[in-house]
Amino acid sequence: MLRILTGFLWLIVLVRFILPMPWPWTLKVLLGLVLLIASQYHFLSRLSSGSVFAPEFPRPLVIAFNVLFGAIFLLAVFQLALDAGSLVVMVFTGNFPAVAPELRYAAGLAALALASFGVNRAIMVPPLKDIEIAIPGLDPAFDGYKLVQLTDLHISRLFPAAWTEAMVAKTNALDADLVVITGDFIDGSLEHRRADVEPLRELSARDGVYAISGNHEYFFDAGAFMEHFEAMDMRLLANSHAVIERGAARLVVAGVPDRSAGHNGYAAPDLAAALDGAPDATPVILLDHQPMQARRAAEAGVALQLSGHTHGGMIRGMDRLLARANNGFVSGLYQVGSMQLYVSNGTALWPGFALRLGRPAELTRITLRQKT
Fold it and tell me: What one-character-per-residue DSSP string does 138-178 give?
């Protein structure tokens, strides 16, 4: 299905952009072939690793594929918009207007420039995003408590060991009380990613590092990865919780596995089990990779849910489509009943479509405050 969709985007560019151009046929054929190969990036990724989610090419080639695939996507959108405008003109004039080559050149250059910029924004170590969230019932001992949320790291050929090391160094420099990772650590097998994830061993915070699985872990050997991360001094919360103490004051951090876990032979998310035995009248921070079930968490009395998964929608405008697929939650802070939900744009994103335009990556530092 993905090959059909990407092939359709290429066909739009071929028929409505390349063929009408006043170029020699050799140039048209050459450009058409280059873009055809780029449009089949995900199929080639499957050939390289057995999975569309893990391109095992050299990083410069992965970047080039993303730039070209992004340009195809954007140019197809621009061309469809141009054709829609031409159809409106035809309604009033009776003739489908000819499009000047200069306009097509502008569209092509804009698509390539935006794709290049968007990929650059996607693969950088993300900037810090500071937010404060007021929590009802938070003990004064936890007022000013700082946690860093990392999510959707997608450590891969696109986000290799050097990127991971830089991201870890930036996280540790924040001197957080707690680091949480809300899923999608990797893209690829443990065999391929072992060196790339190794810098995560250096993550540190006063109260430790807590994590949950994301859906991408289940595209590979989730069990092996979870065991590996636990051996790196992370605490994996799978339908469980931890109690953080400051003297007599307490704060609960709970976590559930991704919604796809149960379909892959692992324990399905069970919020009741995650909260079982948690101290009464204590605020609960829930780690749940996908934000879809936020209303259920609110009904269970969770104070704050931290999620990722959506990558913030990646492109402003496209985020509205992803919001519809995630019960309206795509980026930022939401009030869901008595609970607050924070959906991070992600620390990185899937290397199969690494493009960010208006929805930047983030390294999120959350300061908890008493709600007055």
Answer: --GGGTT-EEEEE----BSSSS-HHHHHHHHHHHHTT--SE
